[in-house]
Amino acid sequence: MNKKVIIVVIVGMVVVFGYFFVREKPNIFAPILKLSTSIIFQETGGGCGDIFVYKINNDHTASISVSANKEKLNFSTTEKTFEIGKSDGLRVEIRIGEKYAHFYCTDVLPPTQLTIRKLFGKSGKAIISISDVDKSKPQWIGNYTATVILKDIHFVDDKGIDSDIVVDELIFKDVGVGWYPG
Q1: Which of 57, 63, 96, 161 has its CA 20 to 30 A from that of 113?
Q2: What does the alpha-carbon distance between residue 39 and residue 16 come to, in Å, rounded to a whole number?
Q3: pLDDT higher for 25 or 76?
Q4: In degrees rounded to 5, what are phi and psi of residue 166?
Q5: Against a cut of 0.85, is the pTM above it?
C-alpha cells in the first residue's frame, strides 16, 4: 500500500511540474528558430492593393511588407512621413518561414506555405508617395505606383517582445500598385 501511495505522489508531482513547465513555454515541442539580425532582401519586389509593397530574401525564407491605406493616410505625389506604430492604416511586417516567392498579391497560396514567425513594425519612419493615376491604363493591371522608404524600423513579435532585427533603410521604388488579385 505504501508503494502505491509513493507512486501516485510521484506521478502527481511529475504531472504538476510538467504542466507548469509546458505552460510557461508553449512552443516547447516546436523547433527553435534562430534569426539573423540582418536579413538581406532582394532589390526588386512587388505590389498590389491600395498600397501594398513587399520584398523577399534570396532563398525565399523571409519577407517584408508594407501595407498602407490610401484614404486613411491621404497619399499624394508629395512625399509624406509617417511614424510606424503610431499611424492608423499603416503596417510593416516581417514573415520568416519558407516559400515566399509566390505568397503575396495572389489569390492562390501554395499549399505548403509555412510561416514560422511574424514580426511587426514597432517604431521608425515610413516615407511614402504615389504617382499620378494613369487613366489610360485599366485599374486591374495597376494604374499608379508607390515609393516607400523605410528608415530605422524596429520590430516586436506577436507578444510585444522586442526583436533584434532592425531595418536601417529599405527602399521600394516605383512599385506598381492600385490593383487587386483575383
Answers
A1: 161
A2: 41
A3: 76
A4: -135, 135
A5: no
